[in-house]
Amino acid sequence: DADVTQTPRNRITKTGKRIMLECSQTKGHDRMYWYRQDPGLGLRLIYYSFDVKDINKGEISDGYSVSRQAQAKFSLSLESAIPNQTALYFCATSDLPASGAAGELFFGEGSRLTVL
Amino acid sequence: DQQVKQNSPSLSVQEGRISILNCDYTNSMFDYFLWYKKYPAEGPTFLISISSIKDKNEDGRFTVFLNKSAKHLSLHIVPSQPGDSAVYFCAASLRLSGNEKLTFGTGTRLTIIP
């Protein structure tokens, strides 16, 4: 089983609908992130959380909200989906980086969202 | 404002030859740089990293070089193998009061030609 699990893996929805993407992890990490990938734009950070009581906006948070239900669960919501939110979404986790370490992220397999 | 840039969207290399993927950055405060590899239908996976206080880090067939004066890093893969065909993202880390975040480049699709 994957350490970082995202559901659903694929979703097609219509403009104006509310959508939730869920992420759960078994790595025991405190830090969780939501990124989106678009062709030619790479991976861009939407929201991140360094512990259950901590939520921070990333570079493209408009139109999104998140909930950190537990250490292992971090969900991303689109309250009213629009076509330019069509993208591949990734959840990631990390541990507090040790001194002298890079602090790598561990990614889920992605959730492909299409908004018509 | 793209702080981390990968100017080559794609690269094709013959099997057995060297693959060189490049990455430029603008923020001199970045303290770690990482490379990730992504296969289709999978999430990115960590490949190799380098601290800003070093200029080279090697791990098997993969070597990352950092040129701080030019704000440039490169990933060398030698010899290249068909399984190396993937999208490669460089990323830079900025630690501000413990709030470390990664900023990713746009990616380079590497194709190894058998």
Low-confidence stretches of chain B: none
Helix content of chain B: under 10%
Helix count of chain A, per DSSP?
0
Q: N-to-C SSE series of chain A?
A: EEEEEEEEEEE
**Low-confidence segments of chain A:** none
* Strand elements of chain B, count: 11
Mean pLDDT of chain B: 93
Largest sheet of chain A: 7 strands, mixed
Rg over C-alpha atoms of chain B, rounded to the nearest angstrom: 14 Å
Count the DSSP helices of chain B: 0
Topology:
The complex is a heterodimer of chains A (116) and B (114).
Chain A: E1 4-7, E2 10-13, E3 19-25, E4 31-38, E5 42-51, E6 54-57, E7 65-70, E8 73-78, E9 87-94, E10 106-107, E11 111-115
Parallel strand pairs in A: 2-11
Antiparallel strand pairs in A: 1-3, 3-8, 4-5, 4-9, 5-6, 7-8, 9-10, 9-11
Chain B: E1 4-5, E2 10-14, E3 19-25, E4 32-38, E5 45-51, E6 56-59, E7 62-67, E8 72-77, E9 86-94, E10 101-104, E11 108-113
Parallel strand pairs in B: 2-11
Antiparallel strand pairs in B: 1-3, 3-8, 4-5, 4-9, 6-7, 7-8, 9-10, 9-11
